[in-house]
């Protein structure tokens, strides 16, 4: 059975999708962009953008009763690989080094609202 996960502590979906779906103990989180849910505005600069995306992901995980330790897979989309090192340091700061998820990072030509970063995750209930 599928359960839709929604929280006001992460940006509302801007299209026909949900923030996340929980099915059979697996949480599929839609790609998050750097929108501040309190204001609905984009934050700018790769440092602030990465922090906001991770906070949005954390809010969705929390709503589902999980943490970053439950994340088994992450997909990161960057507009420029020149931002990789900065993004990677910030991303790592939210995670426990003993439970890093599998991950890929790819450069893309464009992202929604022309942001610099988008991250999606898959988490598993313990």
From TrEMBL:
CDD domains cross-referenced by the UniProt entry: YjgF_YER057c_UK114_family
Family as reported in the entry's similarity comment: Belongs to the RutC family.
Top-level division of the source organism's lineage: Bacteria
InterPro entries: RidA, RutC-like_sf, YjgF/YER057c/UK114
Pfam families: Ribonuc_L-PSP
Protein name: RidA family protein
């Amino acid at each position: 059975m599928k359960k839709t996960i929604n929280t006001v502590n992460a940006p509302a979906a801007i299209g026909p999708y949900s923030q996340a779906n929980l099915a059979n103990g697996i949480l599929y989180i839609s790609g998050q962009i750097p929108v501040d849910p309190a204001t609905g505005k984009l934050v700018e600069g790769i440092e602030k953008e990465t922090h906001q995306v991770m906070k949005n992901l954390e809010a969705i995980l929390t709503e589902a009763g999980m943490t970053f330790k439950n994340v088994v897979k992450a997909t990161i989309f960057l507009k420029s690989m020149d931002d990789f090192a900065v993004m990677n340091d910030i991303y790592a700061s939210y995670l426990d080094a003993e439970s890093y998820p599998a991950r890929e990072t790819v450069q893309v030509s464009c992202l929604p609202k022309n942001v610099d970063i988008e991250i999606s995750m898959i988490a598993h209930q313990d």
